[in-house]
From TrEMBL:
The lineage of its organism: Bacteria, Pseudomonadati, Pseudomonadota, Gammaproteobacteria, Chromatiales. Alpha-D-glucose 1-phosphate binds at Y111, G176, E191, K192, S209. This is Glucose-1-phosphate adenylyltransferase. Involved in the biosynthesis of ADP-glucose, a building block required for the elongation reactions to produce glycogen. Catalyzes the reaction between ATP and alpha-D-glucose 1-phosphate (G1P) to produce pyrophosphate and ADP-Glc. The gene is glgC. GO terms for molecular function: ATP binding; glucose-1-phosphate adenylyltransferase activity. PANTHER family: GLUCOSE-1-PHOSPHATE ADENYLYLTRANSFERASE, GLUCOSE-1-PHOSPHATE ADENYLYLTRANSFERASE-RELATED. Its EC number is 2.7.7.27.
Length: 423
C-alpha cells in the first residue's frame, strides 16, 4: 500500500498537527471477539481493521504525523500497523509510529487512563514540536476530515475543542455528554450520566463526545502534568481533564456533520456484538451510509495478494452463489448459498452449506451442509459438517455467545480450536 493523498487542501495547521490514536483498550463489550486482540485490531468491512478508519482519516486530512498508543494484547494490532502503515508507505518527514506502554514515567504501572497514556509519552511528544495535538479513539468507524475541526479550533481561539454528535437521549448514557451555550462553548461535561442533559431546544437528543479532541500543545502538557500530580484523579480525559478545564478555559464543541447536507454524519461505536454485526451488514445495502467505494476518501489498509473470489458449480441443489452480499478476495463458494452476508478474505463455504445474515471473518472454513444464520464467525474458525448455528437459541447459548438481539458469536476456542495466536 502506498498512501497518496486525495485531492484535498493541506494547510499549515494540519501540517503543524500531531495525531495521537488511543488504541490500548480491550473493548470488553465485544465479548470473546477481543479475548486475543485489542478492539482497534478487530476486522471490519470485509478487508479492513477498525483502526484503519481513524488512520485513513488522518492521512486523507493531511495529518501525516501520527502516533498509535497501544497496551492490551497489542500483537496483532502492532503487526497490522507495521504492514499497512510502516515507514515505507509514507513520504519523507511523515510517520505512523507505535507507542506501546513502556512504564516510561512510573516503572510500577502501565497506562491507567486515557490522559495517563498521553502523559507517559510526554517526553516523546515534545520532540515532535507540534502546535496542535489531535487525540483520537482507535476503535470507531467513520470518515471525517479533521482539517475543518482544527480550523474551527483556531478560529475560536480555543484551548480545547471536542468533536461531538447528536444521539438519542436513551443512548446518551454510554457517552460523555456536554452542554453548550449559543456560541458552541462547552459549559458542562458529564461522563456516562444516568440522566443525560438535553441539547438546547431538544428534549429528545443529547450532545455526545466522539472521543476526538484538539488541544493546543502547551495547554495539553500543562493539564496532563497537573492531572498526574493529583492522587485522586482517574487520569482520564472524560472523567477528569475536560470537567476541570471547562470553567476557566476556552472549550468548544465541534458538531460532526455532512459538509453538503448539514445532516448528522456517519459514526459508529461498534462496541457490542449487536452493533458490530449491524454495522458490517449495513455495508451490503444499495446506498450504505458508509461508502467504501469513495475514491475521494479511500480507506487504506494492508492489501494481501489474493486471487479473486470464486463461485463453483451450477447444478440444482449444488450451486455456488452469493445474493445481496459482499464477498472478499480469496473466497470460494463451492456449491453453497450465501445470502445477505459479508465474507472477509479467504473464506471457504463447502457444498450444500448455507450462510444467511452473517459476518464471516477471514480464513474461516464452513463445512458441508452446515447452516449459519445471524452470526459472527471469528477468524480462523473451522465449522464442522452439518453444524447448525443460529437456529436453536438454547443450543447456541450452551456452546457459543448469544447477544441480547440474538446474534451468535463463534470463536475458535468455542469449538475446540486453539487458533488465538493468528488474530
Amino acid at each position: 500500500m502506498r498512501i497518496d493523498s486525495p485531492k484535498r487542501l493541506v494547510s499549515r495547521i494540519t501540517r503543524d498537527t500531531l495525531a495521537l490514536v488511543l488504541s490500548g483498550g480491550r473493548g470488553s463489550r465485544l465479548k470473546q471477539l477481543t479475548d486475543w486482540r485489542a478492539k482497534p485490531a478487530v476486522p471490519f468491512g470485509g478487508k479492513f481493521r477498525i483502526i484503519d478508519f481513524p488512520l485513513s482519516n488522518c492521512v486523507n486530512s493531511g495529518i501525516r504525523r501520527v502516533a498509535v498508543l497501544t497496551q492490551y494484547k497489542a500483537h496483532s494490532l502492532i503487526k497490522h500497523i507495521q504492514l499497512a502503515w510502516g515507514a515505507n508507505h509514507m513520504a519523507r518527514d511523515e510517520f505512523v509510529e507505535l507507542l506501546p506502554a513502556q512504564q516510561r514515567i512510573n516503572e510500577k504501572s502501565w497506562y491507567s487512563g486515557t490522559a495517563d497514556a498521553v502523559y507517559q509519552n510526554i517526553d516523546i511528544l515534545r520532540t515532535h514540536n507540534a502546535e496542535y495535538i489531535l487525540i483520537l479513539a482507535g476503535d470507531h468507524i467513520y470518515k471525517m476530515d479533521y482539517g475543518p475541526m482544527i480550523a474551527y479550533h483556531v478560529e475560536n481561539d480555543a484551548d480545547l475543542t471536542i468533536g461531538c454528535i447528536e444521539v438519542p437521549v436513551e443512548d446518551a448514557s454510554a457517552f460523555g455528554v456536554m452542554g453548550i451555550d449559543s456560541r458552541g462553548r462547552v459549559n458542562m461535561f458529564v461522563e456516562k450520566p444516568e440522566n443525560p442533559p438535553r441539547m438546547p431546544n431538544s428534549e429528545n437528543y443529547s450532545l455526545a463526545s466522539m472521543g476526538i479532541y484538539v488541544f493546543n500543545t502547551k495547554f495539553l502538557f500543562e493539564q496532563l502534568i497537573r492531572d498526574a500530580d493529583d492522587p485522586t484523579s482517574d487520569h482520564d480525559f472524560g472523567k477528569n481533564i475536560i470537567p476541570r478545564v471547562i470553567k476557566n478555559y476556552q472549550v468548544f464543541a465541534y458538531p460532526f456533520r455532512e459538509m453538503q447536507s448539514g445532516n448528522q454524519a456517519y459514526w459508529r461505536d461498534v462496541g457490542t456484538i449487536d452493533s458490530y454485526w449491524a454495522a458490517n451488514l449495513e455495508l451490503i445495502g444499495v446506498t450504505p451510509d458508509l461508502n467504501l467505494y469513495d475514491t475521494e476518501w479511500p480507506i487504506w489498509t494492508h492489501q494481501q495478494q489474493l486471487p479473486p473470489a470464486k463461485f463453483v458449480f451450477d447444478e440444482e441443489g449444488r450451486r455456488g452463489m452469493a445474493v445481496d452480499s459482499m464477498v472478499s478476495g480469496g473466497c470460494i463458494i463451492s456449491g453453497a448459498v450465501v445470502r445477505h452476508s459479508l465474507l472477509f478474505s479467504n473464506v471457504v463455504v463447502r457444498e450444500q452449506a448455507s450462510v444467511t445474515d452473517s459476518v464471516i471473518l477471514p480464513n474461516v472454513v464452513i463445512g458441508e451442509r452446515a447452516k449459519i444464520q445471524k452470526a459472527v464467525i471469528d477468524k480462523g474458525c473451522i465449522i464442522p459438517e452439518d453444524m447448525e448455528i443460529g437456529f436453536d437459541p438454547v443450543a447456541d447459548k450452551a456452546r457459543f455467545e448469544v447477544s441480547p438481539n440474538g446474534v451468535v458469536l463463534v470463536t475458535p476456542d468455542m469449538i475446540g480450536q486453539q487458533l488465538h495466536m493468528v488474530r
